[in-house]
Amino acid sequence: MELKEFYYDLPQELIAQVPIKNRDESRLMVLDRKNKTIEHKQFKDIINYLEPGDCLVRNNTKVIPARLYGKKESGANVEFVLLKNIEGDTWETIVRPGNKLHIGTKVIFGDGLLLAEILDKTEDGTRIVNFTYKGIFNEILDKIGLMPLPPYIHESLKDNDRYQTVYAKYNGSAAAPTAGLHFTEELLKKIEEKGVKIANVTLHVGIGTFRPVKEKNIEDHHMHSEHYYVKKEDADKINEAKLNKKRVIAVGTTSCRTLETITDEKTGLVKECEGDTGIYIYPGYNFKCIDGLITNFHLPESTLLMLVSALAGKDYIMEAYKEAVKEKYRFFSFGDAMFIK
């Protein structure tokens, strides 16, 4: 399939720059795959589409303030975005300006609270960096780091918590699993009271999620890798739904990619596990686990648009996106939601 098949025209003013005041009052487009219908609702209406025994699977990763501004020993300004903790105090990092940050370069952040040395350069152009500091790394990041908002958001974020889900728990992401931003504590409580099981997976989202596909044929694209882990209690909830012929509904493409990575092809079940996934889902893929997906609206020609096209059918998705533009839905990270059922 060619990349251009996943292009759609999006007016700039539909790209949401700030979060909506009340998380669960964003709009919700409901796609019924069986009947090929499109409904327009409010996000809090999602409860009406969930049934007792269904399992809602969410990603409880937490975004770290991964954007750091510092200075080289020469005094030149530099920017780092932490991508992935390799081990200890060694990180894979995006650096700017890349052509000036060679192996051995040292960088000072926060008037000396954090020091960095560049150890290596990867094939992708990122750097392997070792940090030294006194105290606790995450506490220092909280003091001097900024939220790594996507490149299409130009407004500054007044409240960092609005780029976290209300259930964010484990530090490690360079981007939020944004489908989860619509949920409130109250809505989740009502969902559980209805008899819907809620399970967690943890996948630390890399900035690669925003990297554009450049290949003409989508099959030639190389997918970035992200780290995940799943606990036994959560695997048990997912399996219970499967064994009882109930639906497993992924909250977001990160939960979906984790579930599709860990599901046994023969049994359709999952187990407690940890690993890295570079799974690339595009039309033609046969889903092993999920029966539904809650997601945001994705960038033209992106791997995430290909994923939802694989689930719902490309023509149906492109029609739905055309409708979303016409109805002036808000797009991308702080935008509105879609439920594919």
Write the layout of secondary structure elements.
Elements: E1 27-32, E2 37-42, E3 55-59, E4 61-63, E5 67-72, E6 77-87, E7 90-96, E8 106-109, E9 114-121, E10 127-133, H1 137-144, E11 170-173, H2 185-193, E12 197-203, E13 226-230, H3 232-243, E14 248-251, H4 253-262, E15 273-277, E16 292-296, H5 303-312, H6 314-326, E17 337-340
Parallel strand pairs: 1-17, 3-12, 3-14, 4-11, 14-16
Antiparallel strand pairs: 1-2, 5-6, 5-8, 6-7, 7-10, 8-9, 9-10, 12-13, 13-15, 16-17
Helix pairs in contact: 5-6
If you had to describe this structure to a student in words, what would you say it looks like?
The chain is of the alpha/beta class and 341 residues long. The protein folds into two domains: 243 residues, QueA-like; 78 residues, QueA-like (Thrombin, subunit H, Beta Barrel), CATH 2.40.10. It is built from six helices and 17 strands. The strands form three sheets. Strands 2-1-17-16-14-3-12-13-15 form a nine-stranded mixed β-sheet. The chain has a six-stranded antiparallel barrel with strand order 5-6-7-10-9-8. Strands 4-11 form a two-stranded parallel sheet. β9 and β10 form a beta hairpin.
